[in-house]
Known about the structure:
Elements (H helix, E strand, L loop, with lengths): L6 H4 L39 E3 L8 E6 L13 E2 L3 E7 L6 E7 L15 E8 L3 E8 L14 E2 L41 E2 L1 E3 L7 E7 L5 E7 H4 L10 E6 L3 E2 L2 H5 L24 E5 L13 H4 L4 E5 L19 E5 L9 E9 L13 E7 L15 E6 L4 E6 L7 H6 L47 E7 L5 E7 L15 E2 L8 E2 L7 E5 L7 E3 L10 E6 L15 E4 L5 E4 L15 E5 L5 E2 L2 E2 L5 E5 L5 E5 L1 E5 L5 E7 L30 E6 L13 H4 L1 E8 L7 E4 L5 E4 L5 E11 L2 E10 L10 E5 L5 E5 H6 L4 E2 L1 E10 L2 E9 L5 E7 L6 E4 L12 E8 L14 E6 L4 E6 L11 E7 L9 E7 L6 E11 L2 E4 L9 E2 L7 E3 L2 E9 L20 E2 L2 E12 L2 E5 L3 E2 L11 E2 L1 E3 L5 E3 L2 H5 L3 E6 L12 E4 L19 E5 L13 E6 L2 E8 ...
Parallel strand pairs: 8-12, 64-65
Antiparallel strand pairs: 1-3, 1-13, 2-6, 2-13, 4-5, 6-7, 9-13, 10-11, 11-12, 14-20, 15-26, 16-17, 18-19, 19-23, 20-21, 22-23, 24-25, 27-36, 28-38, 29-30, 31-34, 32-33, 34-35, 36-37, 37-38, 39-51, 40-41, 42-43, 43-47, 44-45, 44-46, 47-48, 48-49, 48-51, 49-50, 52-53, 52-55, 52-73, 53-54, 54-62, ...
Amino acid sequence: MNKKFSTLMTGALLVGSITVASAQHANKSDWEVPFRTQDVTAARLDQIAVTKINKFDSNKYYQLVVNENAETDADGENAYIRTPKVLVQTRDYTTGKLYLKVVDINETNELGAKLTSSLWKIDVQEDASNGVNFRFINKETGYPLTFDHENAVAGGTLTADSKISGAVEKTLVDGCIDRWTWYNIAEKTTGTFDAQKLWAFVHDTNSKKVIALAQNASGDVVAVEYSDADAGVNMADQNVIALTPVVAGAKVLSANDINSMIDADGSWEYGNSVAGDNWNKAIFDVFKSGTTNEVELAATYDYFVREKGYVAEEHDYSGLEGNVSISDYAGFNIALRVKKASTTEPDSVLMVSTEAYEADMLNPEKSPNLKLVNAPAPDYTKLTAYNARSIFKFTYFPTQDSLVIEPWNASSMSVAEYQAGTAWTATSLASATTKQFYNSVNEGKARGTGAMTAADNTGVKKAENEPVAITIAYLSDGSVVPTVGRARTYQGGAFASAGLAINSKGNGKAYVTNKQADMLIRIGFDHDYSYLARATKDKKEGVDYYFVRLSTTKAASQGEKRVDGSYIVSDFAGHMYYDVKENEQDFNHMPATQWVVKQLGCDNRTAPQDNETPRVRITNREFANVAFEGQLYNVKDAEGKVVAGKYYFIDHTKDANVNYLEGLSQHGAAYNFLNCGDTIYFDDVKDATRGYLDLSGKQVTDTTYVFNLIDGLNNEMFLTADVNDTLTIAKEQLEFQLDNATSVTANGWTKTIYRLKIKDANQIDNDYKYIALDQNHKFVAKYEEDITSDPSLTMAWFAFKEDAHANGAHYYAMILTNAKGEALQVLRRQPISNEMKVDDLCTSMGTTTTTIFDIKPVKSHIYVQLAENRVYVPVNIQKEPYQAFLYEDAGSVYSAGKGMNFVGVQPKNVTPEAPSVYIDLAKKDDYRPLYMFVVDPDSVPAYTFCKDGNIEAPHGLNPSCGHEESYDGYLAGRFMINLQDSVDLYENINKLQNASIFKHNNKTRLAFVEAIHKGDKLYILKSDYTLGLKAWEKKGSKTVIAIEQDGHKYINPKYFKDNEAFLAVIDVTKADDANKAAFALRRVDFKNEVEGSEDVDVKDVQFYIETAATGYGAFKGETAAWLKEEDGVAVLAQKANKNGNHEGSDDAINEGINQATPFTFDFENATTPTENETIGTSAISVVATDGAVIVKGAQGKKVVINNVLGQAVANTVITSSEATISVPAGVVFVAVEGEAAVKAIVK
């Protein structure tokens, strides 16, 4: 906080008053960042006529005359413009926005040209297309003349004075276009620059458009746009604004002007003559004439240029007795009082001393070299010749930024008097009258035209109208000292013949010469225009969102939430407030704490048209309320240096009730904006994860949840329903399903809302019991049909919003929404009853009153999860409670003669007993694993094969020829599939005419078909191919099996390359309708469920065999199909078709899961599908037994046993004639040293 801003409001002005334009929102002393809100009217010039130029000097500031008239000067030269209109840049101090305006230079009202706002530094740059282009930087703001082509309006036909018709708003100064086409040269060898239209191409060159300047009825500048064709060459076809660069006229300064340093930044700060009060002071720079090189004055004279500085004060002598007409001496009324180190220090002022430098060496033809000193302040109630030596007139020349400082009395004794040591008080100079003061340029009289004598001490020999002013002298030792003296020369000749003109003003201001005098030096104010530092927030790579934080030195307020570093966030209702992040919160997971910063306007960062500090729009990430739109500014420290990363802005347009001193002190939708009294900074959101519980898929359909209350007491309390079905908090856990998960967008944020459904009593029946809101604002558990029929009940929708985070866990508040996702209220636990009721959203997040839960998923076990030792093994799939099991049926009355092996259900103890099926894993999944069932399985591990080899050739399987290729292992056999798509196993079957082949009782059947499981795919063979070794094993077919000379058999890899042998290739890992070969095992009930364990004893678990007829089933069981036994035939209990119509019809039978047949697994009595318990290899035998392999006759040999994945499960050297090696259940490959590997199935 900068203390000096308090003095304007509370301090007394000792040196006159300040004229201030409308300052409704003056700065307050305790704002975080002060900014300029006052516009000092230091602009009205005393010399109205302005001079045109013939070249541009980058060190000077020019005025820009708008549509100049043809008025000439008295000599007939068109070098002056008498009453011009000029272009100014104005700031709206309620918003900080900049605009351009056309104003009369001599207006005295608030529309007049403020001096610094009418001055422009003109930067000329070479341009390949036009020769040069121009950039105009305003002295008042430091900001260039810039427009955004997106803000330009269609120009149309303008009036002769460039006015656009209709009510057209002024155009914001901002954007990418800040270099303009104007003249095509930077210097003229003859004449001066006349009026020329200003325009620029839109930086998107493909648009072929240009923009230029016009004015509306109020004189505000409007950016207008034309096509390239309509504009004409150099805008010749349109009456857009033409500008003429001119030298600004002179101004005689008041004390207020001096103290404000000619409207520089900080110009509203005034003070008295005592140092330490932080008010302004005038200090001067001295430069060599015509250059920017600073003059090094002798160290003794730091008082003038560097040390204490001065405060200007005005003295009015118009009423003094004997005074001449004050207009003759107007402007000579300024005293410069020295800033004091303390109040006890005597008052002193800048004065022209009566003493001279090196008086004994003075030469009448040289300056008298009068000393310029700080001397005791005289009594200004009287005007004496001595007092007048400390009274000055200040004339400011804005274009040169130069001061001519003329003392009222700079009379000097003669050389003889100096050499004789005569006291100044002993000369006639001491008693001279006002008319005899010898330095009035206003009186216009020549004095001392003859040789100076001791009796004629008439001062400096000078010409009429020639000023005597502060200059410098070079002493004999080479040092440079300040002094007063006459002008040395005038450009083109002596002052006596310069033809100077004096312009009389009726307003009592001083006469001003309209020619320049060379005083050897250029005096300027020692101040820096500390412009507002425009800023923007650049988008970082990988960063989409930001935290907005407060920077303040104030004590904590607003419930200890408004402190340095606090966050600006939105509550549950989207209302902004200050918040301090608690240890148990992670704002990265809370979108209401995050903000989107979007840069506005044309986005072009390449020269010559650029915008390095575009405006921004700051929007809450969750609620999409625009907290700020406009220009950011960098904060500066006490030395005027930018503080990296800290920003403020100007915006006083909000509700009049807003207290800008207290920041976000008002709460509600009407106050949802950043406060301009705040200094803010941004932090990156490093992990912009979504802040709501967003679940989908199996997380919704196959998972239930318990709501564990988080209250810091570790009481293990849960959300449940009591005996009256009221939603409450208790020790008992109740599992909920997050039902009807719906992604919605509300207030700009996309989240998932749910209905809260109580877990069904069993896995089959859907209870449809949901949480609803009753008329007493209580939450109750009711059946869906009751909710829809009872007007006092409303189905409740919930969003779960993260409100805390600790130890890796996320805790959520329950937000009641409507079906559109719009937040209505937040749920809170009642302190005594523990019931859950609704409460107002307008409550800060993270407060102790917010009820939050750890929403924990519960392993649903809807589907059977087989342990590793229950896969790749044979099993009987038996029907319950009847003693029957699934088998491969090709000969029953329902299957014989139909050309394929169907799935049947055979009673036990029927001779011959059908073989068991082999369990193959299609997809491992935590929710819904998929299995396949195979008969006559044949597993082959990964192998290499040489395509140059075949059944007869020596290369073939696992060669070492050097050009073999690698192939994954596979499982071949006859796989159970769902015939819903009537897989065409045989090309001679017409499915449309013989659809009944695939049905029983109009329900879809299942069959075992020859196929190969490799990787994620199941390759189903065409009807004319077989897995048999010989063609006669399947009449008219070709085998895909190759056999090596050593007896190994395998699928010839060529078939996997061209797929010519396969009817279909199914991805058995996908959960879609196309997957008819993989099955899920859906539980009938929750019996035998081991909590927290996947390894459930499945032999006692009843399940339904679920297949993807039209998709995967959920709790309701509305989309899947299940196996059912009818007449010893396996069919689907859902999805049937009209006779003869495979695509289905109105006669389709649509049975539910209640008609499906429950099954269980019998592992103990299963027979191996390949019947190869004992495999002989020469004199060595391999016997598969329960959990082990017995190897006989291999003493001293190495034995390696691999599983179907090629992974070694045993590697040992046999030390006895019979060895038992423990291995996991399933298919294994046993390789005895020197023997071919053999396959065994371990139970």
